[in-house]
What does this fold into?
Amino acid sequence: EALIENEPFDIVNLRLEVPTVKGARQKAPSFMTFEVTSERQEGVAPFLERVTALVREAGLVLVAATPVA
It folds into this structure.
């Protein structure tokens, strides 16, 4: 939440897939997908770098970051 506060960007279509709720609580592998969008129709690349850093700081693995033209 702090990452998008006062920014012209948002994280949308956030989906979390976990094998089971109990499994998620026990740190079973889970998979999250999301999209980054700009409220001002500007490039999201600099913001995506900050998202990537946050993911790594949280000890997670970023599998792919694919820009959509």
User: Anything to note?
Assistant: The longest strand covers residues 9-17.
